[in-house]
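[job 4471] stage=fold_predict status=RUNNING
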Amino acid sequence: MKRMLLSLLGAVVLVLPGHASEPIDDDDAAAIRTVIERQLDAFQRDDGNEAFGYASPAIQQQFGSVEVFMHMVRTAYPAVYRAAQADFQMPRTIGDEVIQEVVVTGQDGVSYLAVYTMEQQPDRSWRINGCSLFGVPDVTI
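[job 4471] inference complete, writing structure tokens
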């Protein structure tokens, strides 16, 4: 059911004017997934230094310290901070941005669509440049 809903959400994004979607090559897709998985794992272990290290330079500058970053994640993104499950979709470009959609389910069983904006660094590695959470309706048939 979640996959059907995500397909519908993805279709909505794809039909927005001026928002053509392009797939990401397999190597970059794997690298993007790894970065997000490692950050989620670091959150589980309360390893703020590692989690903060996966943020883009702009995000690191915005928050200024590991402590401020971790406080923000704990309070504003509890489903990401303590994800019980993460289901990855295929990353893609929309306009000039690379996004990775992940359905995260928190410890409370509530699911959200986490839309990660990714940024490729000069050394070709990937970093997280933002995350937006959207409620996923509980659809039962």
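[job 4471] summary: The chain has six helices and six strands.
[job 4471] exit 0
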